[in-house]
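Known limitations

Structure tokens in this collection are predictions and should be treated as such. Users comparing against experimental data should check residue numbering before alignment. To illustrate the layout, the record for Flowering locus C is reproduced below. The input appears on top and the generated tokens appear beneath it.
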Amino acid sequence: DASVALLVVSASGKLYSFSSGDNLVKILDRYGKQHADDLKALDLQSKSLNYGSHHELLDLVESKLVESNVSNVSVDSLVQLEEHLETALSVTRAKKTELMLKLVENLKEKEKLLKEENQVLASQMGKNHVVVGAETEMMEMSPAGQISD
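Generated tokens:
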């Protein structure tokens, strides 16, 4: 069962809409809820692209807040700087989380390989122990001073 919503904006700016089944608002709300994380990530990425790097953003904040210039900065400008800093912080945290998850995956893979290697070595030691044990038994069974082939 699929719900379809169609929005068309003409060149003159007139809005046309169509929806099947559910009304348009319900369809768009459902879409927004299902894709909120994707949309948030895209929004954070687009906001972070407004500044080439976080360093440039920090330089901008510093230049706005220099002691001699503080009295000339508007509240709106400070709020906007705060929002940009929060966005940059969110992007940084998301990147850190992504890197940490990759590190955990790599460590799990390394653990798996080490466990496999440990099993191989343990089985080789078990085989060697059996061979050494058999040789010891044979030496104990042979009369002293005689070497048996």
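For this record: The beta strands are 5-9, 15-19. Residues 1-34 form one domain. Please report discrepancies through the issue tracker.
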